[in-house]
C-alpha cells in the first residue's frame, strides 16, 4: 500500500459517497466515465510516486539558493514538473477549447492530493499556476487568455499571486505598490512584494505574476486596488518570451518548511531592467480598475481550499508512515506477559499507540472528506441544471471555505505531531520523514490567511451575510444527514442525536455573540468559534461516511466506523467547553492592558 495516500479511501469517498459518476450525466462531463476518473487517479499516483516523492527530502535539505544573479534549484524539481506538464494535469479542469480535460474539480482535487502528499514544495509551482490561470479564465480578456493562459495550461509558463508587501502582510488596505497608466494602454508598476511563492526561478520559460497595485487617484483602502498581469519576460507578437521586464528578485526567504518552493521578495520598477528604456515594470490591467481584490478572491478562495487539501495530504502521509512504523517496530510486551524473554510485540499492540493512530485517522480522513465535498460543491456551482442549486452550492461553499482551509491546517498538523510521537525518538530525527511533514505542514496555518483571519471571516462575515442565510443552509444540510442517520438507527442514530445538540449550539452561540452589539467582544472569540464550528462540520463529514459504509463488511469499513466512533467520543465533546466559553462573552483579551503582557 502507498505511504502517500490511500487509494481505497479515495475510491470510497469519490464513488461510494460522493457518487462522482453521476456528474457524467451533465454536458460538461459527458465525455468522462468512471474509467477516465480512475485513469486520472492512477496517472497521478504514478507520477507523484516516481517523480515527486523521491526528491522530497533532497529538496528540503538542498533548498533553493540565490547567488545574486539567478536562483539555483536541484535538477530533480524541473524534471518532475516537466513530467507533470506533459501529463496534461495542469489543465485538468479547464475547457477543451483551452487545451484542458474538463475533469470535475472533485476528481482533480483527489488527483492533486497525490502530489501534495508526495512533495508539497515541488507541487506548489503547478498549484499556483493553476489558480492563476483559472483567475484569468474567469476575469481576463480573450487576448489575455490567449497570451498567458494557454502557455500556463500547457505547463510551459508558471504563475504567482503577489499580494503582501514588507509593510503590509494580511492588511491589504495598506498596499503601496502603484501602477501608472501609459499612453499605449499598459501600466508601469513600482513597489515591492513579499512572501511570493514561486516568485523567481528558471523552471519555466516565463513567470506570470498577478499583482495587486494602486492606480493613482483611486479610492483609499482595499477599494482602490487593481489587478495586473506582470510577466517576468515581456511577450512578443508571436507569443514567445522576449525582453526582460523590470521585475527583480531582491532575495529569498528561508522558511521552516516548503523549502523546495522559492519564497521571494520582488521589486517592481527598481530600474535594473527598463523595457523600452522607460522606468517601471510593464503591467496589463485585468478587468476594470479598482476591482482587483474582488478578482483576486477568485484565486484566493481556490487557493484556500487547496491549502486545506495540502494540509490534509501532509497529515495523511504522516499517518500512513506512522501506521507502517507501528506495524513493524517491535517494542515491549503485552501487559499480561511479564516474561522478559518472550518476544516483543509491534508497538501497534499498545493501547496508547492505537489511540494516537485512531486520532490521526479521524483527523485526516475527516479532513479529506471535507476537502472533496468542497470540490463537489464547486462542480455543483458550475454545472447543476437548476439555478437554485447552483446558488445554494455557492453559498454553502462560501461558508465552508474558511473551515476547509483552517481545520485541516490545525488538526492535520496535530496528526503530524502524533505521527512523530508514534515514532518515538526516531520521529524527531531527519532520517525519518515525519519530521519534515510536520515542518512543511506548520506553514499551512498561515498560508492564504492566518487562522485568526479565517475566524474573523467565518464569524464576522459568513455567519451573518444575507441575514444568516449561509449558516442556515449549513444547518439545513447537516439536519438532512441527521434525519437519515436517525432513520438508520443504531449507532448512527446515537451520533445524530449528539451532533444535533451541537448544531443547535452553533445557532445559539452565534446569536449571543452578535446580540451584544459589541463587535470587539464577538471577534475576540472568533478563533474559538472557528474551531468549534469546524469540529461540528467534520463530525458531520464522519456521520456522512458512516452512513455511506452501509452494511459493508471488511477491515476498511471497520476502520471507517472506528474512526467515526473515535471522533464522536473523543473530539466532538471538545466543543461543549468551547460553546460555553463563547456564550460567556469573555473579554479577557480585549480588556487586558498593553503593560500586562
What's the SSE blueprint?
Blueprint (H helix, E strand, L loop, with lengths): L6 H11 L16 H19 L3 H6 L3 E2 L4 E2 L2 H13 L17 H14 L1 H20 L2 H12 L3 E6 L15 E4 L5 E11 L8 E9 L10 E7 L1 E3 L5 E4 L2 E6 L10 E6 L12 E5 L6 H37 L22 H33 L3 H36 L11 H8 L9 H12 L2 H24 L1 H26 L3 H6 L1 H24 L5 H17 L2 H10 L4 H4 L6
Parallel strand pairs: 3-6
Antiparallel strand pairs: 1-2, 4-5, 5-11, 5-12, 6-7, 7-12, 8-9, 10-11
Helix pairs in contact: 2-4, 2-5, 4-6, 5-6, 5-8, 5-9, 6-7, 6-8, 8-9, 8-10, 8-11, 9-10, 9-16, 9-17, 10-11, 10-12, 10-13, 10-16, 12-16, 13-14, 13-16, 14-16, 14-18, 16-17, 16-18
What can you see in these coordinates?
With 597 residues, this protein is α+β, with helices and mostly antiparallel strands. The chain has a domain at 450-591. 56% of the residues lie in helices and 11% in strands. It is built from 19 helices and 12 strands. Strands 3, 4, 5, 6, 7, 10, 11 and 12 form an 8-stranded mixed beta sheet that branches. Helix 2 runs parallel beside helix 5, helix 6 packs antiparallel against helix 8 (292-328) and helix 9 crosses helix 16. The termini are far apart.
